[in-house]
From TrEMBL, chains A, B:
Entry keywords, A to Z: Transferase
InterPro entries: CoA-transferase_III_domain, CoA-Trfase_fam_III, CoA-Trfase_III_dom3_sf, CoA-Trfase_III_dom_1_sf
Signal peptide bounds: none
Coiled coil (UniProt feature): none
Matching Pfam families: CoA_transf_3
Molecular function terms from GO: CoA-transferase activity
Protein's name in the database: CoA transferase
Organism of this sequence: Neobacillus rhizophilus
Amino acid sequence: MKKALEGLVVLDLSQVYQGPYCTLQLAYHGAKVIKVESPKGDILRERHESKVPHEFLMFNTNKYGVTLDLKSKDGKKAFLKLVEQADILVENFTPGVMKRLELDYDEVLKKRNPRLIYATATAYGLTGPYQNFPGMDLTVQAIGGVMSSTGYPEMPPVKAGPAIADLLGGTHLLAGIGLALYQRERTGEGQKVEVSMHDALYPTLASPLAALYDGDPDNYCERTGNKHSGLRSAPYNVYPSKDGFVAIICATERHWQLLVDILEQQHLLEKEEFKNTISRAAHMDEVDQFVTEWTKNINKWEIVEILTEKGVPAAPVLTIKEVANDRHLIERNMIVEINHPTKGKVKVPGSTIKLSRSIVDNYQPAPFLGQHNEEIFENMIKKEEERI
Amino acid sequence: MKKALEGLVVLDLSQVYQGPYCTLQLAYHGAKVIKVESPKGDILRERHESKVPHEFLMFNTNKYGVTLDLKSKDGKKAFLKLVEQADILVENFTPGVMKRLELDYDEVLKKRNPRLIYATATAYGLTGPYQNFPGMDLTVQAIGGVMSSTGYPEMPPVKAGPAIADLLGGTHLLAGIGLALYQRERTGEGQKVEVSMHDALYPTLASPLAALYDGDPDNYCERTGNKHSGLRSAPYNVYPSKDGFVAIICATERHWQLLVDILEQQHLLEKEEFKNTISRAAHMDEVDQFVTEWTKNINKWEIVEILTEKGVPAAPVLTIKEVANDRHLIERNMIVEINHPTKGKVKVPGSTIKLSRSIVDNYQPAPFLGQHNEEIFENMIKKEEERI
């Protein structure tokens, strides 16, 4: 057994980021993932004239691609044949779509295949007052508190640039599938795995929520720029350097002692106002001023080398262009260059999960629309029909 | 079998957010999670005089708590007894700490218990040039590209307020454990699961990376405020309402047609510059102006009701205080009120993963430091020694 999920078949009806990221990881760890697109294709394809925008390539590596019209009788029939042979089905339609397609899990799919793990990822989940709100990463960041806790206090709320709602949702879905696979090994039964982006964002608010519950609610600060979201830790900020910005944080007393040594400000250790996390947080601006005095005349990577060598957490603020060529991400196979038949060399993400007994070492570019129709339908439907 | 992970024992050496969030979900789904703290306790306890800051309570529900000094001979001996009976070990020390404690997975733990799943979560992983950098959520957001892609173009880079690096790391770790548990059922063997916050952030950059690779690199925009991170979609923004802000996005042609109907601007459908995603993205500011003209005179929830009822993704920007009392999150058991022996009523997050065959219906508050020493040591160490 070379990979964790060898032998498993996944039907992937999902689109854009949330579902496809989940099934990408399933594919990397050995599952046969069949991306089932409508004849029009994943809506993400529309973002570029080529119909293979870079983000589509990032999330569909190592998948098979077939097209089926689930609204047609033949399409549905073929799909149900695939369901009978599948271990996992992933979809991120808005609630109700699968039912309208007469492919409801409880009423139809579970009866066809009781071992099926049915994984559904939505914006708000299948229950609760917002269940029918259509939602995407941006709107879930808005209603989920990400925007109001991001940015500077004097500026309007702003989203996190990265697609965090989508990716947190997709990763929770993946985790849920892992737990359901384990449970199926013990019981023989499949189940429904349900995840929402909105739910997935809530625990990320731990620091601001803690400030709200443990602190003074009347002095509660919604947005804190680069300071700690609960204003409960210092030093904790992004400081100007000679050539950009550098993030520095002292999470323990040891970090603070090391930093003070590097700054040659040992006298601070004796001061009552800096004696522990709580008192330093109360004198945050003074703390930040000491640090800035030192950082502003040094280059960012030099600061990071000095601090990290001593053991103080620090990192440069990198641009997207710098991240795209990050030597560390390349060495860890998080940026993998592969050949695409029409786009040439493209860079796709590798597996975020490194398993010592399931090495990811093969990368096939995302399928064209319907690329594997013949292969999949021939092998999984016709042969099955002949067998019967 | 009432819950997915019933019968499994987890040793949790992790601190702060990343590891503890992973083990929280393991505990919710039925594993017996033993939080092993040093006699000083999880560093997160230092954030509040009570030693039970709210964020600690959020991430340690349903866990047992014991203290062990792993640097002492007796502490190590007791820990190894627990390892022999454990299914999963979770730690998020900086790389090298477990080796210095003479508790290295390959050299020591695996030999004691070949079925052990050893899950390690770090800032940068166990390989690569940054492996020895100490890191926390803030610094990983800096080096990982989150900051440079968050905020307004005319302002400095800013972090995402929520702890996204920690939580994405922790969720990937949970997923990796799920896959490893499945593989262990098939092979009988444990393995090492490795996850880093830095790796986990990289795929969230899909939109800005796509803009970089598919677009014009010279006109590449690092930060786009609330516009699409790749400037590849419109309408996609946060618009002013009479009483705050509202996020609106048209992900499909259908959304756009519905919105234009609601705005009573059907003539826009005939214009070349708004005919599809690509052309609307090229005329983003004009599109945003039409939308703003309509939103600015209406209350945010009213806008959301009008749009979502028709099927257009929209959501109000909520404050943290509003999120903390969100009726949808409460109904979905994402905000659960429980009794804490010293703090009284506290609100902890429920399970983000809803499994139809593993219902989460019991919530015990986070343990005090060493609360279950007697119970665990009596049952798992003394009885084991007597048995031998």
